[in-house]
Amino acid sequence: MPDVRLASPQGKWILLTTVLGSSMALLDSTVVNVALPRIGRDLDADMAALQWTVNAYMVTLAGLILLGGALGDRFGRRKVFVVGVVWFAVASLLCGIAPNAGVLIAARALQGVGGALLTPGSLALIQASFHPDDRGRAVGLWSGFGGVGAAVGPFVGGWLVDGPGWRWVFLLNVPLALLCVPVALRHVPESGGEGARGRFDVLGAVLGASALALLTYALIEAAGANSLVVAGTAVAGAVAAVAFVVVERRRSEPMMPPDIFSSRQFTAVNLVTLCVYAALGGFFFLAALQLQVVVGYSALAAGTALLPTTVLMLLLSARSGELADRIGPRLPLTVGPLLCAAGMLLMLRVGPGASYVADVLPALMVLGLGMVTLVAPLTATVLGSVDVSRAGLASGINNAAARAAGLVAVAALPLLAGMGEEAYREPAAFDAAFGKSMAWCAGALVVGSVVAAAAVRRPPPGCKRPECLRQGGVTAPPLEGEPVRKRLA
Q1: Which segments cross the bilayer (predicted)?
Q2: Predicted pLDDT at 487
């Protein structure tokens, strides 16, 4: 049984290293959007390259995050966590010195691999190291510090972009890793999952990531590439997706067991997740560009302008979870997406000469209240819809689904809105496309609300609640604090 106490020096070191490691991945998912216009100008990149700067990271992270938890269970959570931190830091260094957009995109894909190794490992280390009496408080502190990091991330990113330059958004991860790794090796005890045996479902992970990458390529390149190439890539992506489903159904212990979707509640909540996080992923990608390209904000001002949504989540998510416990998740998961949709429609007022107080802030406050209303109940309902022994697996699948939805939205929205390759250099054209994109995002949220109203029910009494209620990330729901023991095959 783990016996480290939170008040001990070792307990504080463990908390520090897990916060540092997870913050690296969390910060990168929030600050890069703010840097995109400057990256585009400095590297002479078109709109597709900016989309890939975001999505190359998300493809490998979403496709491999389930496998990352399994590797920690097998080879040791500390070992895999440290490898993930080092990998992420090296990839960040490559991003920071990238001479062109192609190298930057490749390095971002490598960053996603590192993120898939360290993201599930940070909470697994807390759960495996701390005494049961201190575990809940340790997870709460980890979640709270992570939320603070998410809140200040866009501000710090904007300051770096306007000051030393966008490359420091990535280079900042290197000193964080230099601090994190020695602390982990010296103070964090090694742990491994019980009963972790058999072969890894590498084929399933490769097929899943390949399907995401190919379909993303087809969506991003549809506006400018050879139509035959795009069609062939789309077909290949569909074939890979079908092959993934077939492989997972035939393996005795797959990475993503299909039978977990036999729960109607689990399936419904994941459909809501896809709708909600597709809209949120698309919004945060385009809003940072809109504020800089159209409204004329600096990177620092744009990053600061987006803070209210994260601050609201940090302050109110726990109370939202408690309310959902009393009234059930159906109403919050129905109302929350509608509030988010209203916030995005209010963003239609944000154009040239927009006032922050009169135009931007009201939209972000409504959006933030919608996110507060739905995020904690969504995670709790996912965990309550399966057996407690599969809570970690359910949380990992839900987290991966959210990230996959976000990357598809980033790929598809510019195509749906008619953005050209040079859209971010043309304020009037970008403003028009932004308005269409917000309408698409609002529509996806309305669909999510309808699914929740029709299919989500109150979980049975005594269902497992999430421990990460204060996590302030906006690109995916918080991972469950219990070790995410992934299936091996």
Answers
A1: 12-36, 48-68, 80-99, 105-126, 138-160, 166-188, 200-220, 226-247, 268-289, 295-318, 330-348, 360-388, 400-417, 437-456
A2: 36
How many angstroms separate the Cα of 343 from the Cα of each of 188, 267, 304, 450?
43, 27, 18, 18
Q: Which residues of 458-474 are buried (b: 16+ CB within 10 A; e: fewer)?
A: ebeeebbbbbbbbbbbb
CB atoms within 10 A of CB 262: 10
pTM assigned to the model: 0.89
Question: Cα angle at 396 between 395 and 397, to 5 degrees?
Answer: 95
Residue burial 168-199, b: 16+ Cβ < 10 Å; e: rest: bbbbbbeebbeebbebbeebbeebbbeebeee
Query: CA distances (Å), 368 to each of 8, 278, 325, 391, in order?
Result: 37, 16, 20, 27
For residue 302, give Cα distances in angstroms to 25, 34, 148, 171, 184: 21, 7, 18, 21, 35
Nearest to 469 by CA among 400, 380, 393: 380
Please tell me the distance from the alpha carbon of residue 382 to that of residue 235, in angstroms, as a whole number.
Answer: 32
Predicted confidence (pLDDT) per residue in 298-316, tens digit: 999 998 998 898 888 888 8
Q: Side-chain half-sphere of 36: how many Cα atoms within 13 Å?
A: 33
